[in-house]
Specification:
Length: 726
């Protein structure tokens, strides 16, 4: 109703300005789009004018105040939160951590027969050749091991005491660290923040239908802004997943509350693109937006700085020029930082000082390990955007040796379908040589060169010309790395890809495939020679994580390759090596929550001995081992019945109607969740008798009679008994 009243007010204002008040009727109803009923065709023009019986129906989604919204549908499971690492990419030979037994080596998955029933298990090898078979239903007790770079991994013994000692030592260390982190956080929270009115007139006119993850992120940001403490939130999502959309909502709220907003981008090109996006979106509002980068003159900068000081400028978008000592804000309320890892140490120190009083929203596709770590442990707020835009297709990654034939094939394939090509060469000194080579390989292609050493007017013109389609190939340095959005450019070739970092390559790959067209990323390696091992691992990770929404997983993999130990210094390094970074984060997050006085959910290993059931997802239903095991792990991790039901809906959407075995598996997953909620850690069903045991003891909580019940009816009775106990 509030949004409806705001829409009525805005429409009345427009009609009054056009002297058409009373010519429209506004009603609240469900309508996907507008339509027009014209006068009957057999009426004369005179009759039509006299009867005036034409009807025009306009809905909110029509092009009146904004573009039509893009509708979005998803079956993604709700409320899952970030997981350090799924088993999606876990390969035999890699290390895992079992919360009860310690660090082991993952051997693989298989089916074994226990008490006459086949069960799927993960097999983990420990020191002295010991093997542990972990049922897929208990996969939530496993996490991927991320250690300290340069230190050998020490496997634990299945019957040894070292694991319990390592866990206790790590818990003691994280308790001290949690206290230090909370002290820093507490100091920040004692600074009185500004509580924004988030119900601003005009937000309803934003044109795009949000993805489920965007809805959650926007709600979290609004909650942060409405609180009386400064916000410090990281929005992590793939290129094109709507991080800027979330940022614009926050900027709009801040500006409409009379606060100023600074939007920081690492490159001039990205800053200009943000400026165009914000200007287009806020057209028709009283918000004044200005740009501050090397595309503007010194005189223009001086005028912008003056208006920031007087409050005449509401939102300023720019590069590190905004961080100049000459800039003085009249009332800075919100800082939006796009790809913070691209800024230097001096700039980050400046931002730390601004963070003391202003709200901060950081956007990143692949956050730096420390940022990722602080977010994962709960010391910094995190929102993940994992829902892909509608019709988005994953970019195909090809790692190939550099050759004229490879380059020619890639360029010709893209040009034949009417697209454009990025060719990235990151050395200005010999970029002219590469231009000559491209001209000899594809003489018919129109090539434009762009790099950061060009004067601003020339660079801006070349980028605009390429965007308008006047050139086929953009030969550039990494100035295109962040934020460039040209839907027609769907092939990128990266020269000497082995010399780039993982985050750089991921960002560059994100420049293509930003529409419904298939994107292609060619990572070109030297024609001959050996590639060093770290470069091979980076490229292999990018190849493996080529699907949609891979940015978070790549950031975790980047953390693995760099090593987690250097995040917190040598004092914590040994504990991370002993228990693994994943479990270390879990311990720290749990300790921080307890110190804050929050309710902590304990991991309950529920044992279900059901003689009538054999919970498994059949091979015939999900043939791909990786997908089946990943889903089983997600079911095992579920802590809410809604998540179980959402996962079941996702399975049905992806693999078709659930067979009876899969339906039973889902219901047993629901039973396990209800057991945890009712503090039951063991159900024993033999014959007609079901016994429920309280968590942590052999105390019998309840006994029910299942005589004469079918297997399906027995499950129904068990679930009903638990629901009545909660």
């Amino acid at each position: 109703p509030e949004l409806f009243d705001a829409a009525r007010k805005r429409l009345d204002q427009h009609l009054a300005a056009a002297e058409k008040r009373g010519a429209a009727i506004l009603r609240l109803d469900d309508l996907s789009g507008g339509f027009e009923l014209s006068s009957p065709a057999n009426q004369t023009t005179k009759q039509s004018k006299q009867s005036n019986n034409s009807l025009l129906v306009v809905s909110k989604s029509d092009r009146v105040f904004a573009k039509r919204k893009t509708h979005y549908r998803t079956n993604a499971a709700i409320g899952q939160g970030p997981r350090l690492s799924d088993f999606d990419d876990l390969e035999p030979g890699e290390y895992v951590v079992h919360i009860d037994y310690g660090v082991g080596r993952y051997i693989g998955s298989s089916e074994i027969v226990v008490d006459g029933r086949r069960s799927e298990v993960f097999t983990i090898e420990y020191a002295d050749g010991g093997k542990l078979h972990v049922p897929a239903a208990h996969a939530h007790l496993l996490s991927r091991y991320v250690g300290v770079k340069g230190e050998a991994v020490r496997l634990h013994r299945l019957d040894g005491k070292r694991w319990e000692k390592d866990k206790k030592d790590a818990q003691k260390a994280v308790t001290d660290l949690a206290a230090a982190l909370l002290e820093t956080q507490a100091k920040r929270e004692t600074v009185p923040g500004f509580a924004y009115d988030v119900n601003c007139d005009g937000v309803e006119a934003f044109p795009y239908e949000e993805t489920p993850d965007q809805v959650s992120a926007i709600a979290a940001v609004e909650k942060d802004l409405a609180a009386r403490k400064p916000m410090d939130r990281l929005i992590c999502g793939d290129a094109g997943y709507g991080k800027t959309e979330v940022a614009m909502r926050a900027a709009f709220i801040a500006a409409m509350n009379g606060k100023q907003v600074a939007v920081l981008a690492p490159t001039t090109v990205l800053a200009e693109q943000h400026f165009e996006t914000f200007t287009s979106r806020f057209d028709g509002t009283p918000i004044r937006i200005e740009s501050c980068s090397r595309f503007q003159s010194a005189g223009t900068h001086a005028g912008t700085f003056q208006r920031l000081a007087t409050g005449a400028c509401d939102i300023v978008i720019g590069t590190h020029a905004i961080l100049s000592s000459k800039v003085c804000f009249r009332d800075l309320g919100l800082i939006i930082i796009d790809e913070e890892q691209r800024f230097g140490v001096r700039h980050k120190e400046f931002l730390k000082r601004l963070r003391a009083t202003a709200d901060v929203l950081t956007l990143s596709a692949t956050p730096i390990p420390r940022t990722l770590y602080l977010s994962m442990t709960g010391a910094r707020d995190l929102s993940l955007l994992r829902s892909p835009p509608r019709e988005r297709v994953a970019v195909e990654t090809r790692i190939v040796r550099d050759s004229d034939e490879t380059i020619r094939t890639a360029i010709e394939s893209e040009l034949r379908r009417g697209g454009q090509v990025y060719f990235l060469h990151n050395r200005v000194a010999d970029i002219g040589r590469v231009e000559k080579r491209l001209k000899s390989i594809s003489p018919e292609a129109r090539i434009v060169v762009a790099h950061g050493q060009m004067d601003s007017r020339t660079l801006a013109k070349k980028m605009r010309d390429f965007e308008r389609g006047e050139y086929d190939i953009l030969l550039s340095t990494t100035i295109i790395e962040s934020g460039i959005d040209i839907p027609r450019a769907n092939t990128i070739l990266i020269d000497q890809a082995d010399t780039f970092g993982m985050a750089d390559l991921y960002q560059l790959r994100g420049r293509v495939g930003r529409s419904a067209q298939q994107g292609y990323a060619y990572f070109l390696l030297p024609p001959s020679g050996i590639i060093d091992s770290e470069a091979r691992e980076r490229l292999a990770a990018l190849k493996r994580h080529g699907g949609l929404g891979a940015g978070f997983n790549l950031a975790v993999r980047d953390l693995e390759l760099r090593g987690a130990g250097n995040l917190l210094g040598s004092q914590q390094s040994g504990h991370i090596a002993a228990v693994g970074f994943g479990l270390y984060c879990q311990l720290l997050k749990r300790t921080i929550a307890m110190m804050k006085g929050e309710k902590v959910k304990e991991v309950i290993d529920v044992k279900l001995n059901l003689d009538f059931a054999n919970p498994r997802l059949p091979y015939e239903y999900i043939e791909e081992d990786v997908q089946r095991l990943s889903l089983m792990k997600r079911f095992a991790e579920a802590q809410d019945v809604r998540i179980v039901k959402a996962l079941a809906a996702e399975m049905k959407d992806r693999f078709g109607p659930l067979p009876d075995e899969a339906k039973e598996y889902v219901r047993i997953a629901e039973l396990r969740v209800l057991c945890a909620a009712a503090s039951i850690d063991h159900i024993d069903v033999k014959g007609t008798r079901a016994v429920f045991y309280k968590t942590g003891s052999r105390e019998v909580f309840k006994v029910i009679d299942l005589k004469g019940k079918t297997a399906d009816r027995k499950l129904t009775e068990l679930i009903a008994a638990l629901r009545n106990s909660i």
